[in-house]
Amino acid sequence: xxxxxxxxxxxxxSDGQINRLAEQxxxxxxxxxxxxxxxxxxxxxxxxxxxxxxxxxxxxxxxxLEIVVRKPKEDEFxxxxxxxxxxxxxxxxxxxxxxxxxxxxxPNLAKAxxxxxxxxxxxxxxxxxxxxxxxxxxxxxxxxxxxxxxxSSAVQAMEMAKIKWIKLVVNEKAGNYEAFSARGxxxxxxxxxxxxxxxxxxxLKDRYITSRDHPVxxxxxxxx
Length: 224
Fold this sequence. Notes:
Helix content: 10-25%
Oligomer: single chain
Order of helices and strands: HHHEEEEHEEHEEHEH
Number of strands: 9
């Protein structure tokens, strides 16, 4: 009994060339990929949780345009840069525009003209949102009088902020500042790749007084 032969596709034609039709109809083991990703499972925690690192990136981009000279706000946790290269002091400063702007006085000008000024140290700080600011901390006893508890407590808080996240709070009754450590685990600060010189340029711009003819001093003298 002869077994019927299964028809086969001829691979080569009479001229020995590959039969293109046969080549196209041969079965293949390749899997077709439509290029479409499967729809995410809306109940998968990994697809729902928001990675908040993008907030830090956006905040860092904003601070590159301008850095404010100010003391820490009572509702923010912050850190102080521990590197000595990221501080400047003691320096003579004065306030202008109702205390909203800080100007540096040339040391010789401050001494020769006997201008009323504060002696501070600038510290580079960053808050939990990644925003840089420069904190002018008054040097205790620099006024020539007894050490002010506001100034000494600010220095103590500054030292704490070098190693941990803190919040600076005013205690009116005690007449000083209080530092509160963050209860939760906050990642170490992500300092932007700026030199201290670049930070000062963004923070102060042209607010450096070298002459008595400066508009800020003339306004204080009632000239402007």
